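Board notes (copied after class):
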Amino acid sequence: MPQRVWDQYLTERDRAHLAMRPPRRRGFGEKPALLLIDLYRWVFGDKPELILEAMKKWPSSCGLEGWSAVPQIQKLLAKSREVGIPVVHTTGLDGAGVAPRSPQRESELQANRDPEARDRFTRRYEIIDEVKPLSGETVRARPGQAHSGAPR
């Protein structure tokens, strides 16, 4: 078995314990799926921008570093769709039954916003167009990310 990063920190007892365990089957299993997590505007914004510029409109933006992953995600998504692997998108969805992290923070985010900022806030959990779900693909709210809702 190849050396793992943490192997150098194992005690002799840890190594003996691992050696006694039956081997585990590794691989993709019999029912693989592609899970796409947090590919929404709150993280990406509307377009690729330098992070400090992007954060002016989208405070949780990953900037260009996030966008640089999109072509690889698109390749994986296209192949998954081609071979019929189920695709599941996770996002924060308003009204998904999960309490907001901080009701006060939500009201602060919505208060005193210009119309453009309010529009961005209502679109924050839209999955970016580059990896948009197709009809029949599952879209689920990620626990802890659903919010009580923004004015629409």
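Comment from the instructor: Residues 5 and 38 are 27 Å apart (CA to CA). Strands lie at 34-37, 87-91, 138-141.
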